Amino acid sequence: MHGSRSDAALLAAIGERDLAAMRVLYDRHAAWLSVRLTRRCNDCDAVADAVQDTFVAVWRKPQGFRGDGDVAAWLWGIAIRRLVSRLRSHREVMARFEMMDATLVPAAEDQVLLSVEYGDIGQALARLSPEMRAVIQAVVLDGLTAKEAARLLDMPVGSVKTRLSRAKAHLRAALAEGLP
Amino acid sequence: MTSWHVDEMALRRWIGRSDSLADSASVEQHLLWCDQCRERVNAAVTGRPAPGVVDLGDMWSQIRDAVELPRPSVFERLLQRAGLPAHDAKLVAVASAFRGKWLAGVTGVLTFVALAAAVGHSRGVWLFLAVAPLVPCIAVAFSYDPKVDPALEPELVTPYPALRLVLLRTVAILAMALPAVALFGLFVPGRAPYTWLLPAVGCVAAVLALSTWTSSLRAAVAVSAVWLVVVWSLVAQAGSPDVVLHARFQIGYLVLAVTSTVIFLVRGRHVREFRPRRR
Amino acid sequence: MTPSISLRGVGRRFGAAWALADVNLDLAPGVTGLLGPNGAGKTTLLRLLATALSPTRGQVCVLGLDPAVPAERTGIRRRLGYLPQEIGFPRGFSAFAFVDYIAVLKEWTQPAVRHAEVRRVLDLVDLGGISTKRIRAMSGGQRRRLALAQALLGSPPVLILDEPTAGVDPEQRAALRNVLAELARTSIVVLSTHQTEDVAALCERVIVLDCGRVRYNGQVTELVGRAAGRVWLADAPDVAASASWRTGTGRYRNVAEHARAGVEHVEPSLEDAYLLLRGGTRPDSGDVREVLS
Question: What are the distances in angstroms from CA A151 to CA A5, A49, A89, A130, B87?
Fold first, then answer.
């Protein structure tokens, strides 16, 4: 009965204190949220806590979703911020630049896919330093503020801002370079 | 949207964290709006508990507990801190007497009475002396009376020892009500506030003892009526309210408290009998 | 040893009136229905069985224990589930919180085990999905199911239910019947109801009470058999019948003591047999007066 409902419909049911609907939402989203969070911070417990906090927060205030965009994006916004605040309180294992291994180069077939999705940005990104890539991911892709990114990456806010502007400059140059 | 989906290899590399930033960004953006690929992630991750990977089943149990389990009230946590086991604290706290509205009502009455005592001099003091010992009585009556405690009938036939329940609730109420009345007593000129402690305990014990014969609400009403008559007649005779707290009467209150407690403990098994209204 | 309940010469008086008089019963595992008009003494009998009341006269024996002895009474209560006719819920509680509270009173002290049991009984009555809903926000039928859930804690050997299906819609009632049938394989289940369909569908045995006395105690099939040949359909109410009422098809169903020939006989139902027994008053009427035939 629940399986065919849209995420928004599930949220409405959750507003009516329907625990079964919450379970369906969990089954749909917990897996990818966990994996994506683990890529930002390899501390399993912090990730588990963040995902749990996210769903409890959804239970308490399902009307926080304003109906704009995907429910998945809204869930990610809550989840990454919960992770960041957890890290602030624990200060243990944090996102490490080593995860973005500079030596890994995408295989040939994927190059083609990438150029379909991102054009030359893929190659340009691959040439950035690990710290700059981390900053781009946190600020541009995950939607964090400079302050939140600073907490996640364990670096001062100033460094985040300088690295971000340098990264953007590099990317602009690389893309300009790539144009025929 | 397009019918493009992430291919198996790319998905596995994403889960295994072995792809580049650009690839992962691509997958992650796609997952934000594709339910099918999200399900594929779910299938890949479920049923493979390993160190370093989150346990989805365990996480759900934690979430369900956080959402479903009733959170202990402030009062419950206080009781637990005082040494009471968690389940006993829960039982004591459920009693009607501990509800906010009731507490607010009692506070209101006491404030009024204390003000009257402070302002109205001897008349006010009389009023305070008459009312103060009754407050814990009524609190005890409310905490387990059938008409007031709505869940009584199923509670009635549970194996939990009734005596223990009533005593726990009474002690908890006394621990709360007595200091409250003492606080208000500070505003009353004349005798030290603690001298009415014995009358209060005596009245409470009498209510408990009487409740082995009739309902606790009726017992509280009877004891209140008797107390008010006693206070009125004593004051009318002697002219000053202080006489009620005189030493020779204190012994009387002590005797009342002790005998009532003995009666209550002896007849304890009658506490849990159902007394339906006559049809 | 199979669990059993027995009553010998049991009577209960309130003031001057005897709500129950001279009741002799033996109950074994299975579902026993309790039928009778309002004021017949059904609730009093159930309260007696549930150890909420003590008898004025006679002996009660539940699972080999005597409820008059306090220690044995506690022993009975450990193996008992009771659903009262009217139930009030503590203010501000959710469904889960309420069943959890009763579970604590039933001596489930370990939180993890207790919570698992609470979830189990809530799922049995199909309230698992709304366990966090405030009771005051629930419908009458949902509250009734919640009240039943607390009685089911621990799958007790003795289950006493006072009108368990009151206000519950038909699908839920069917689900409840399954739950009770499952439990009745090893437990003694006694339920009172105004609906003869519930008794017919669920109970092997039925007890009919009237004015505090047992009018019938035996198999449902046997009681129904008594009405064989005494029920017929006609286009108009029959004056010679003990009872006669208009059915949904527009025809009249007639029940009479003496079998009549030359009329359109139909298969008797439990309700017909009950009416015959009571001399023509329908079970859901509050009336105790006899209808003269």
Answer: 37, 17, 10, 17, 41
